[in-house]
Amino acid sequence: MSADTPLMPIAGNIDPVPTGRAPAPDVDGKRNLVGLNKDELRAALLEAGMAEKQAKLRGKQIWHWIYNRGATSFEEMTDIAKAQKPWLMERFTIRRPEVVEAQVSTDGTRKWLLRTHDGHDFEMVFIPDADRGTLCVSSQVGCTLNCRFCHTGTMRLVRNLEPYEIVGQVMLARDALGEWPSRPEGRMLTNIVMMGMGEPLYNFDNVKQALTIVMDGDGLGLSKRRITLSTSGVVPMMEKCGDEIGVNLAVSLHAVTKEVRDEIVPLNKKYGIEELLQACADYPGANNARRITFEYVMLKDKNDSDEDARELVRLLKKFDLPAKVNLIPFNPWEGAEYECSTPERIKAFSDIVFEAGISAPVRTPRGRDIDAACGQLKTAAEKKSRAQRDREAAENQAG
Ligand code: SF4
């Protein structure tokens, strides 16, 4: 990040963080209706000159078509007068992010490389299980937090994703799974985790707006109990998240001593472990039925000793946290400076936590063959070496 990178103000009482830039305006000059809340959608119709009474009715119909039926064009909206469609089409679009590439892992995990309207790539991952399907959603292109075990953290932050780009990920997954119209039962996409690229609490307003649309009963209709937001520990935003979004919380803890957490999750230098756990204890809505998930990546000889496991138990008990611990075997990537703990070590660690009465399952790595597993997300464009990019640029110029 260079010294002249502009700072992005974050809602709430925290320091601004460096950001790339705001999204470029749409090329076609049309307003995208995806990502607007109900009031904004109606206001957009009014601003474009529609009469008030009609804007109210059309707003409701269009909302239903976009979020319940998955419509991607006004032509599909059979209850909107034919004569009005050209007027809508001239002024508005219904756009999701572009799908650049879709990959399927041997274990059924799917990963999509997506592109924003102004040309930035990001990813989302769908993980099917026997009784549920979880979509791992990104909140930023790149990330500022540089967690040392995370491949995404080696990308610079390009920009925050807009509400349409966040809710659009859920819509694209529904497209691919054939899950329109929205229905309460029998769907494959049952859960959402805000655990893809980026730190969602550094893009609070857009994440809140997108999740509000996802949770709306007239639209995508996913219950807040099935949505989990994962933070690296942006302490001042956690209470606001519980109060205003109300989803489940997951925390990337990954270490129990200041020394190790400072190294692998550098945000710890700003918000230390005790402060973070206190914010978890105060998280609105957390109780034994809605436990907080603590993510813990298993790094060989770094954070995986018996002593670490016992300290983890001590800390969770000290703060009386309704907790479950997810042990994540480290997913290696080229250039990573850590190794995964041995299966025996992970088992011993898990046993200590379980014996203390705290659930600590070991997560089976999913989608490793397509780099879709935890901490592996990094877009294809960014993975190219500098030399490769230079060569391509030279070829483009020559061509
Ligand atoms: S783990 Fe999450 S917060 Fe940390 S660098 Fe990776 S994407 Fe960013």
TrEMBL record:
Q: Where does S-adenosyl-L-methionine bind?
A: G198, E199, S230, S252, L253, H254, N331
Q: Which residues form the active site?
A: E123 (proton acceptor), C374 (s-methylcysteine intermediate)
Give the catalysed reaction(s), semicolon-separated.
Answer: adenosine(37) in tRNA + 2 reduced [2Fe-2S]-[ferredoxin] + 2 S-adenosyl-L-methionine = 2-methyladenosine(37) in tRNA + 5'-deoxyadenosine + L-methionine + 2 oxidized [2Fe-2S]-[ferredoxin] + S-adenosyl-L-homocysteine; adenosine(2503) in 23S rRNA + 2 reduced [2Fe-2S]-[ferredoxin] + 2 S-adenosyl-L-methionine = 2-methyladenosine(2503) in 23S rRNA + 5'-deoxyadenosine + L-methionine + 2 oxidized [2Fe-2S]-[ferredoxin] + S-adenosyl-L-homocysteine
Task: Note the InterPro entries from the entry.
Answer: Aldolase_TIM, Methyltransferase_A, RlmN_N, RNA_MTrfase_RlmN, rRNA_lsu_MTrfase_RlmN/Cfr, rSAM, rSAM_sf
Give the UniProt keywords, A-Z: 4Fe-4S, Cytoplasm, Disulfide bond, Iron, Iron-sulfur, Metal-binding, Methyltransferase, rRNA processing, S-adenosyl-L-methionine, Transferase, tRNA processing
Location comes to: Cytoplasm
Question: Does the UniProt entry include the keyword tRNA processing?
Answer: yes
GO molecular function terms noted in the UniProt entry: 4 iron, 4 sulfur cluster binding; metal ion binding; rRNA (adenine(2503)-C2-)-methyltransferase activity; rRNA binding; tRNA (adenine(37)-C2)-methyltransferase activity; tRNA binding
Q: Where is this region: Disordered?
A: 1-22
Enzyme class name = transferase
Which Pfam families is this protein grouped with?
A: Radical_SAM, RlmN_N
Q: What is its EC number?
A: 2.1.1.192
Binding-site residues, [4Fe-4S] cluster: C143, C147, C150
Where does it primarily localize? cytoplasm
Q: How is the cofactor bound?
A: Binds 1 [4Fe-4S] cluster. The cluster is coordinated with 3 cysteines and an exchangeable S-adenosyl-L-methionine.
Q: Which GO terms describe its cellular component?
A: cytoplasm
Please give the function described in this protein's UniProt entry.
Specifically methylates position 2 of adenine 2503 in 23S rRNA and position 2 of adenine 37 in tRNAs. m2A2503 modification seems to play a crucial role in the proofreading step occurring at the peptidyl transferase center and thus would serve to optimize ribosomal fidelity.
Q: Which family does it belong to?
A: Belongs to the radical SAM superfamily. RlmN family.
Its recorded name reads Dual-specificity RNA methyltransferase RlmN
What is the species listed in this Swiss-Prot or TrEMBL entry? Sphingomicrobium sediminis
| Gene name per UniProt | rlmN
